[in-house]
Specification:
Helices cover 9% and strands 47% of the residues. The chain is mostly beta strands. Strands 1-2-3-8-5-6 form a 6-stranded antiparallel β-sheet. A two-stranded antiparallel sheet has the order 4-7. The longest helix has 6 residues, at 2-7. The relative contact order is 0.24.
């Protein structure tokens, strides 16, 4: 995670005016969007013991997945996060595996 923070400007941004937090209490999911200039990053955490799906408002465009903790390479049960989110109407449905974390970055 530290390497991603150094590589992606939005992850290093801690100014509250440049972030949006969505808490989905009933699903035990948290989504954080950070912005720095033209760079935007979405981080999604699932704190429940089952896979979840949430709808998040995002800027239109493509959002490639940079990290999925449920991937086998990280000891997970296999990737459940999309390889890339495509946002066309300002919102997108995001699946997230149980007890996992995913990072997406805007391609703009």
């Amino acid at each position: 995670m530290l390497a991603l923070r150094r590589e992606i400007p939005a992850l290093g941004c801690i100014d509250r005016k440049d972030m949006t937090i969505n808490a989905f209490d009933e699903k035990r999911v948290l989504a954080l969007t950070r912005r720095a200039g033209n760079n935007s990053t979405l981080c999604v955490w699932n704190f429940s013991e089952s896979a979840q799906e949430v709808v998040v408002e995002l800027a239109n465009g493509h959002w490639p997945n940079l990290f999925d903790s449920s991937a086998a390479e990280w000891g997970g049960k296999g990737e459940t996060a999309h390889a890339r989110l495509t946002v066309t109407e300002g919102r997108v449905r995001i699946p997230i595996g149980a007890w996992s974390f995913a990072v997406y970055v805007s391609d703009k």
